Automatic annotation (TrEMBL):
Residues covered by the Tetrapyrrole methylase domain: 2-208
UniProt-recorded Gene Ontology molecular function terms: precorrin-4 C11-methyltransferase activity
Superkingdom: Bacteria
Gene Ontology annotations of biological process type: cobalamin biosynthetic process; methylation
Annotated metabolic or biological route of this protein: Cofactor biosynthesis; adenosylcobalamin biosynthesis
Family: Belongs to the precorrin methyltransferase family.
Protein name listed in UniProt: Precorrin-4/cobalt-precorrin-4 C11-methyltransferase
Length: 257
């Protein structure tokens, strides 16, 4: 017995893998997070499929439903927003399903962090500037591990992507400043990346909280911070060795400058 968890991508119904779409189209039962997954995508399910919205369900309710349908011999898919590997709340589902003898296959999806970078036209890793991206969230009602406080992670001065932190923008600013970041550090915020009502904001650490408030970005917003988000980055001399004509690698011999 098996169910499939599918990453639906960030919002645009076209940003799903071919494999994920085929599984939705062929499923007998489709469960989806209706508060975050595009209904346009779910409409690709076959007409006779049982389509169930899960935003109002608790964990055991969802799991019991999936187990019952699988035991009836039905093909069941569970559609998650973005990529299930990042803040996907999948592990607790998988644990309960496995106790019932149900295996789980996961189909990856486009994460909102990479969709946000794409709509901004940003590369999050820039040679000689930053080669690391930290995916995290600010501490709110749900705590983070003691060794993963934002101010400590930010001390690496690399690119930082903040999920689930739109209501904590003032705290975010203070944590970055405590880590030694400058007030003029570039920050970009994308609300509902790739959705029709998507909004983008370019600002600085100093103005982040005020600008997010002015733009009503208090939920479903990705915050990207660091000098890789500098709007003038293309005018600066940061270049990958991959395409440097003087650099030799396995597919090309470099030439003298």
């Amino acid at each position: 017995m098996k169910i499939t968890i599918i990453g639906a991508g960030p919002g645009d119904p076209d940003l799903i893998t071919v494999k994920g779409l085929k599984l939705i189209e062929g499923a007998d039962v489709v469960l989806f997070t209706d508060s975050l997954v595009s209904e346009e995508l779910i409409q690709r399910a076959k007409p006779e499929a049982e389509v169930l919205k899960t935003a109002g369900m608790h964990l055991q309710e969802m799991v019991d439903l999936m187990v019952n349908r699988v035991k009836e011999g039905k093909e069941v898919v569970r559609v998650h927003t973005g990529d299930p590997a990042v803040y996907g709340a999948t592990m607790e589902q998988m644990g309960l399903l496995k106790k019932e003898g149900v295996n789980v296959e996961i189909i990856p999806g486009v994460s909102s962090v990479f969709a946000s970078a794409a709509v901004l036209g940003a590369e999050l890793t820039i040679p000689d500037l930053t080669q690391t991206v930290i995916l995290t969230r600010a501490e709110g009602r749900t705590p983070v591990p003691e060794k993963e406080k934002l101010k400590d992670l930010a001390k690496h001065h690399c690119t930082v992507a903040l999920f689930l932190s739109a209501t904590l923008s003032k705290k975010v600013v203070n944590e970055f400043l405590d880590a030694g970041w400058s007030l003029d550090t570039p920050v970009a915020v994308v609300y509902k990346a790739t959705w029709p009502d998507q909004k983008m904001l370019r600002t600085t650490l100093e103005n982040l909280d005020e600008d997010m408030r002015k733009n009503g970005m208090r939920k479903q917003a990705m915050i990207l911070a660091g000098w890789a988000l500098d709007e003038q980055i293309h005018d600066k001399d940061f270049r990958s060795k991959l395409y440097d004509k003087t650099f030799t690698h396995g597919f090309r011999k470099g030439v003298k400058a």
